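Forwarding these from the shared drive since the link keeps breaking.
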Amino acid sequence: MTNLRLIPIVVLTGLGVANAQPGAPTPVAPPPTEPPPTAPATTAPRSLVIHVAPASVAADRPVDLLTLGDPTYTASAIVPVDPASRTKERSAFAAVNRLIWSGEESRRIADLFPGRSTVLVEANATEKNLREAVGGKRIVHIAAHGFADSQFGNLFGALLLTPGAGKIDTSNDGFLCLHEIYHLPLQQCEIAVLSACLTNIGPERPLEAGVTLASGFLTAGARQVVASHWEVADNSTAKLMEEFFREWKALRATTPFAAGTAMQEARKKLRQDPRFASPMHWAPFVVIGTIQ
């Protein structure tokens, strides 16, 4: 018999620190040149119903990791200052800031899974490389800028990666949009960790919860997703994610909801550092999806 647990979703708002410099603009994907693609049919009720899988699921399977961090934001990675300019003539732009801690975050997490990690950083942190490497990976970790878009059902909300070299098309323009995330081959993914801002935020449809980047990864096949409710800081997030993965690796084979327990322990450790004692540093990330 299927065992279900009903877990209320708590929406946290009003806290946060930017992972960019003060006054930096909110990134927005390039304006669509054609009507937004149709997203796969999916629903997200306000109370998240989580299926509890058998305790033995995936515990003895090998762990292959794909980690992406420190994308290179060049002059081509410019974004509109005004989010409303997506549907207007764009005249003002600003470059996004490099996330200097995210590359080290990826490397330290990869060190926890020696011999089984694919690391994409800096110039290699492109959409094309991610798509080619993500198939079959049980862990997907992306440390980058993230943003939500209130228009078009958040289909153009995105994770901001390294733009491809040479002639760039929309499949490798650096904007890994929600409508593209839906089609990633994540059928083997146990957990996707979105180490970025605003990955569990999105517009609400009638009778549904927000349409978010996190829900896109779940729709694509990931069993669990770690995602954020607000803007996050580069340095404290890097530390939190390192501690999270260390705990998750130790608990994975023995604890049914290892990700939730690992996040709780990682938060406790981060709070012990006076620099990161504020909830804005340790509280933004949540774990959603299937209890394994």
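-- next protein --
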Amino acid sequence: MAPKVAIIILNWNGWRDTIECLESVQRLTYPNYQIIVVDNGSTDHSVERIKAWIRGEIHGLTGKEKASKPLQVIEISRAAVLNSTTSDFLKRLSAQRTITIIRNDENLGVAGGYNTGLIYALRQRYEWAWLLDQDSLPEPNALSELLHTWEATGKKAGVLFPSRVDKSTGVIYKPVRWRGKRWTKAFSETNQPTDPIPVDAAGFSGMLIHMHILQDAGWPREDYFVGYDDQEFCLRVRDHGFVILYAPTSKIRLSVGKPRAFRIAGREILSTNHPPYRYYYTSRNKIYTHWHAHPDPLAVLFALSTILKLFIVILLFEQGKLLKARFILKGALDGICSKMGKVMEPV
């Protein structure tokens, strides 16, 4: 029997993107999954809009819907997830046409949002969890290809990644390897793999996690809030001896900021144009990771060099230069001082 997969879609003030993601998920060819939408404290009536789509009151946004409406919906709170027993959740198991919506009372960040869904999936005894950001659009065979890769490589991988392609630019967001106290891209533009390869990290969206690894490697860190939480989680997975694979035959499309590519001296430079708060958290978490969580002086130097490069890219290509530069500096200092958790609200 095909392993049972919980597809966890994280929504924050983006119901249109989430509905488009849900429509893509409904076209998956994989036979054994259930959908969990975690709403991360949205203020734009996202849950009501998503439920209206589930009831068939909002027509599909892509014109490619597969399932007829209405679907079934279960709506619960994060508090209920944390306080219920396994038997309570097993009573809720039903057909694949059920979508579970879990409400977080506030924005808990990326890891906090995903953890809400992961706790629910663990108590419902799912074998795998597939994480998707609200703007991610998986190809119909994306999940099948990930699990086919797992089986074809001896069922040894604890985490698998698809090929992640930017919706607007077509840029492939390459997975990375940890080499010599620094991250390096797992492959080049001219040498893209066609077969699975071992990697050390990529982004949360598209990450397929075998649930058993959480017992040893631990959960994504909620005190990071957003930024570099995926890479820190992958470092722990790697340090505990689990295999991480990149499956190029599995593909999703997604958006990362508002990217623009530039060429300087023959090298491609990618500007993501993230809002200032995002640069604060990424800089803070990157420094904290290599200064405190996984301490290594050489890795700290590498982290500082990447922040310096980010400074240069922002000063050359992005708007709001001074505010972003100030937030990056504050983030680096807070990382050194271990000032973690949600420091500022995303805007």
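The chain has two domains: 5-254, 260-336. Residues 168 and 194 are 23 Å apart (CA to CA).

- D.
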